[in-house]
Write a structure and sequence with these properties.
The protein is mainly alpha-helical and 192 residues long. The chain folds into two domains: 116 residues, no CATH class; 39 residues, no CATH class. 77% of the residues lie in helices and 4% in strands. It has six helices and two strands. It has a two-stranded antiparallel ribbon. A hairpin with a 2-residue loop joins strand 1 and strand 2. Keywords: Membrane, Transmembrane, Transmembrane helix.
Length: 192
């Protein structure tokens, strides 16, 4: 189902460029509303009854809202991979699927009798997601380390071009130093 939604969103993105902001904004609104919707029924306004095994409506909406927020955030992360470089796609897509998996797993707890999930299932699920979390963290660290190294190489190359190579190709080196090189280097130093 999630793969189908992702493909539909990708198709919409390619046909209507303005849909990206609307899609992400809509998903964020759903996540926020689902997450804080229980507040409307806190305190004296709460409704007592049987809401999928929850005694109070606010308890049901609280649990339901957390899982909807997880699922929506996972979908936004997966959707955002359409705009990432190839080396960033896999860790973020995997992370998005993992977040959605957690959301769907606990969503089943809300709508299905809890006795189906025994202690062994909980332990196995926790171990699986711990392994997934370590894997994702390792991939993300590798991605960011490579990205930072790449940026350092680019900065080093630009620095060498500005300081070492360019003065050989200008007519008035002093003017170049005063009007180009030193202002650029000072601006970069101010950013650090």
């Amino acid at each position: 189902m999630m793969i189908f939604i992702s493909r539909v969103l990708t198709k919409i993105k390619s046909t209507r460029p303005g849909i990206t902001a609307a899609t992400v904004s809509g998903a964020a609104a759903i996540a926020i509303i689902a997450r804080v919707g229980y507040i409307l029924y806190n305190g004296d306004r709460d409704i007592e009854g049987d809401f999928m095994g929850f005694r109070w409506l606010s308890s049901f909406l609280y649990s339901f809202g957390i899982e909807i927020a997880f699922i929506t955030v996972g979908m936004v992360i997966n959707y955002s991979t359409n705009f990432m470089t190839k080396d960033a796609v896999n860790p973020f897509r995997f992370f998005g699927w993992a977040i959605q998996g957690v959301g769907f797993f606990f969503m089943f707890w809300i709508f299905i009798d809890a006795s189906i999930f025994g202690d062994n299932v909980e332990i196995a699920f926790s171990i699986c997601f711990a392994i997934v979390a370590v894997f994702v963290q390792t991939k993300l660290r590798k991605f960011f380390t490579n990205h930072i190294s790449s940026l350092k190489r680019i900065i080093r190359r630009l620095n060498n071009t500005i300081i070492l190579e360019t003065p050989n190709h200008v007519k008035d080196v002093e003017v170049y130093y005063d009007e180009v090189m030193w202002p650029v280097l000072n601006e970069v130093a101010d950013e650090l």
